[in-house]
Amino acid sequence: MEVMYKSTRSSQTVTASQAILKGLADDGGLFVPVTIPKLDIPVSKLAGMNYQETAYEVMSRFFTDFTEEELKDCIRKAYDDKFDTKEIAPLKEADGAYYLELFHGATIAFKDMALSILPHLLTTSAKKNNVKNEIVILTATSGDTGKAALAGFADVPHTKIVVFYPKGGVSPIQEKQMVTQKGDNTFVVGIKGNFDQAQSGVKEIFGNKELAKYMDEKGFQFSCANSINVGRLIPQVVYYVYAYAKLTAAGKLTDGELMNVVVPTGNFGNILAAFFAKNMGLPIGKLICASNDNKVLYDFFTTGTYDKNREFILTNSPSMDILISSNLERLIYRIAGNDDVKNQELMKALSTEGKYTITDEMKEGLKDFYGNYATEAETAKRIRDLYEKTGYIIDTHTAVASCVYQKYLADTKDTTTAVIASTASPFKFTRSVMKAIDEKYDAMEDFALADELSKIGKVKIPRAIEEIRTAEVRHNTVVEVDEMEATVKKFLNGTPIQSPTSIGGE
């Protein structure tokens, strides 16, 4: 049966490849599958599969207008030696939970899991739909999506990629990874604002009909690499299925036994993928949503009111420093009974008043979720405690999830086997991680910290870190928020863009 995709804000319906190509629906809505397909393959069979085989079984049920050959080709190109382990997403047991390491790709963050395949899904979709224009990927990043998208799309024929990030709002390693990116089709821009402003600016550019017409005349069309693109979202469903199958194969779970999932959450895409996996039939119990001090999601799950009218806090888990969780719209649409009119009403309230409140009936649809948050002090303490207890070192985002899982255990006494999504390598946030372990490390420079982390954690320094030690800064453009559209036009017109702000060495 063909799975079609519908906008969360209207009756617009498209195929999987068309949804991937468009990224965002014409009405500003997000594409969702009209029906979530069933995972109609025995867990016992999945247990014997590698990551690539599992990826095909999951994605083929969502991307039904791709041929078997097309989809397998995309998967083969994505999950190869760019990853430093054949397992692609290994599980590590520590202190009573299983950490699903999603950071073994080229940019050492979980975004690689989907952004390694998105360029191939996108270019295949373009061919399937006879697209002649050059695809321009436009993305806002809170730290990890940017580099993963840049690495995925660098030098991919018939594409260009523009990434906006909040200047001063990402870690030094994250920034260095982006601004040293090679590829003639890549462009990185810092904005004088926060991630929400970058994301809103990108959405405005997508929604500008006059600009779209101008782009078409120039031979370009926009698409996106953010998790609002179903080509990003669906590949993330794979690793929850893979984790369950591997735990079953190892005898840690029996077939049909529930597994809880804990996800450090900002834009809501990663935990939404787990929700999709559950709705496919994977035996997932609770979906534990972990927030940092920007606890807009915790407050939503607690009260039923989503309110972005609050202070934006810069934390040591910057990829979660988000007040507008775009992917939550997909969940809102679903718990509203797939009612695009009701969803549109709530999204309009968010846009105009900065908040909305769901009905009591809709709250019933959130029963699968548990929300909590961890402060900066609690996050640092969890990194230190886990290291001292087990020798295992986690990054700040994973620590937020680990800390919230401890709170969940205390609140519920639920000892169901738990998988914690470990979303980034500790090497990506060396200063915050090492300082949490011992204050003395704060006196060391960034790459010396990486060497020390390797030593005390008994883990090899990732290739991604070694590569940027001496890499040349290639992108130094910084603009005001209201200059984003003009900057994109200049890049596409081939105009040299000079910026008064440049980024220093380390």
Question: How does this structure look, described?
Answer:
The chain is of the alpha/beta class and 506 residues long. The protein has helices at 16-22, 43-46, 51-62, 68-78, 112-115, 118-128, 144-153, 172-179, 195-206, 209-218, 230-249, 269-280, 296-303, 328-335, 340-353, 360-364, 376-390, 396-412, 430-437, 446-457, 463-468, 484-492, and strands at 5-7, 13-14, 31-33, 91-94, 97-101, 134-140, 159-166, 186-191, 220-223, 259-264, 284-291, 305-307, 355-357, 369-373, 418-422, 477-479. The strands form 4 sheets. It has a 6-stranded mixed beta sheet with strand order 4-5-15-10-11-14, with helices on both faces. A 5-stranded parallel beta sheet has the order 9-6-7-8-16, with helices on both faces. Strands 2-1-3 form a 3-stranded antiparallel beta sheet. α4 (68-78) runs antiparallel to α6 and α17 packs across α18. The radius of gyration is 21 Å and the shape is globular.
Give the helices and strands, then pairings.
Blueprint: E1 5-7, E2 13-14, H1 16-22, E3 31-33, H2 43-46, H3 51-62, H4 68-78, E4 91-94, E5 97-101, H5 112-115, H6 118-128, E6 134-140, H7 144-153, E7 159-166, H8 172-179, E8 186-191, H9 195-206, H10 209-218, E9 220-223, H11 230-249, E10 259-264, H12 269-280, E11 284-291, H13 296-303, E12 305-307, H14 328-335, H15 340-353, E13 355-357, H16 360-364, E14 369-373, H17 376-390, H18 396-412, E15 418-422, H19 430-437, H20 446-457, H21 463-468, E16 477-479, H22 484-492
Parallel strand pairs: 5-15, 6-7, 6-9, 7-8, 8-16, 10-11, 10-15, 11-14
Antiparallel strand pairs: 1-2, 1-3, 4-5, 12-13
